[in-house]
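User: I'm writing a tutorial on reading structure tokens. Could you give me a worked example: one chain, its sequence, then its tokens, then a sentence or two explaining what the tokens reveal?
Assistant: Sure. Here is the example chain.
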Amino acid sequence: QVQLVESGGGLVQAGGSLRLSCAATGSIFKINVMGWYRQAPGKERELVAEITSGGSGDSTNYADSVKGRFTISRDNAKNTVYLQMNSLKPEDTAVYYCKGNIVVFTRLKEYQYWGQGTQVTVSS
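And here are its predicted structure tokens:
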């Protein structure tokens, strides 16, 4: 019913920038939360950043390790979330996954969806 498709990963040198995109398609009534997670080899998946819809506007949350370097944003008209990553470090190397807490039309109930992941590699 709902698919999340990520794009924008790749190889970049330390200090460089990348912009990830995640587009949600399907029977979407409302997107409550969209976020980015990452998983490095041998490590658990961790939250990078998330953006939550609210009555007074969106709120954001970042992992301490990326604060000041990464920015999450969303385009509600396109059901798309972005992650602008600046000043990248080798320790940012991981597979980045998009996650959405989405209410679907068919049941008007919230479900959690994940994208397939996109590789980000930062060379030193």
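What the tokens reveal: The first strand starts at residue 2 and ends at 7. The two ends are 41 Å apart (CA to CA).
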